[in-house]
């Protein structure tokens, strides 16, 4: 495997890892927001 393809593969893997972390952060953020909304809704119902 040439050096250029090794470098490109490494860059692609780093980019994919960064994107995956970004998606995971968004998912957790949405879940936390939904939990807060649910908690406020539950308190308001009582």
Distance between the termini: 66 Å
E-strand count: 0
Q: How much helical structure, as a percent, in the residues?
A: over 70%
Largest sheet, if any? none
What's the shape? rod-shaped
* Order of H and E elements: H
Query: Which stretches are poorly predicted, pLDDT < 50 over at least 5 residues?
Result: none
Number of helices: 1
The SS-based structural class is mainly alpha
Q: Which strand-content bin applies to the residues?
A: under 5%
Radius of gyration: 20 Å
Mean pLDDT: 95
Describe the structure.
- By secondary structure, the protein is mainly α.
- The chain is 93% helix and 0% strand.
- The chain has one helix and no strands.
- It has one helix spanning 3-45.
- The longest helix has 43 residues, at 3-45.
- The radius of gyration is 20 Å and the shape is rod-shaped.
- The mean pLDDT is 95.
């Amino acid at each position: 495997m040439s050096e250029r393809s090794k470098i490109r593969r490494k860059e692609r893997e780093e980019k994919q890892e960064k994107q995956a972390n970004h998606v995971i952060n968004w998912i957790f953020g949405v879940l936390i927001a939904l939990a807060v909304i649910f908690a406020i809704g539950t308190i308001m119902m009582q």
